[in-house]
Amino acid sequence: MEETAPGLNAVASPVLGPNGYPLGYVVVLGLASAEATHETGPLVALAGQALSRQLGAPIDELLEPKPARGETI
User: Which single residue of 5, 16, 18, 68 has CA 20 to 30 Å from 56?
Assistant: First the structure.
């Protein structure tokens, strides 16, 4: 939030490949308010997930909650 220039904000999400490793990212950069940036974040995350899924990343497995040590689900 405004780390580079006043009023300039960015939201990003990784794009993963079939092996689950990052290939790139989706980014939205612009002169937007902090509130608009916070509202955009979940949409950018969904876009990154959708693109990753199309590229063959195991998104559902990666997003699945993992049990804590000694805990069972």
Answer: 68
How far is it, in rounded angstroms, from Cα 34 to Cα 2?
9
This prediction's pTM? 0.77
3-state secondary structure of 34: helix
How far is CA 56 from each of CA 32, 49, 53, 61, 62, rounded to the nearest angstrom?
33, 11, 5, 12, 12
- How far is residue 42 CA from its own chain's centroid? 8
The residue among 13, 27, 15 whose CA lies nearest residue 52 is: 15
39-56 pLDDT tens trace:
999 999 999 999 999 999
Q: What is the CA radius of gyration of the chain?
A: 15
Which structure tokens are listed for 66? 């993992």
Q: Are 58 and 50 in contact (CB under 8 A)?
A: no
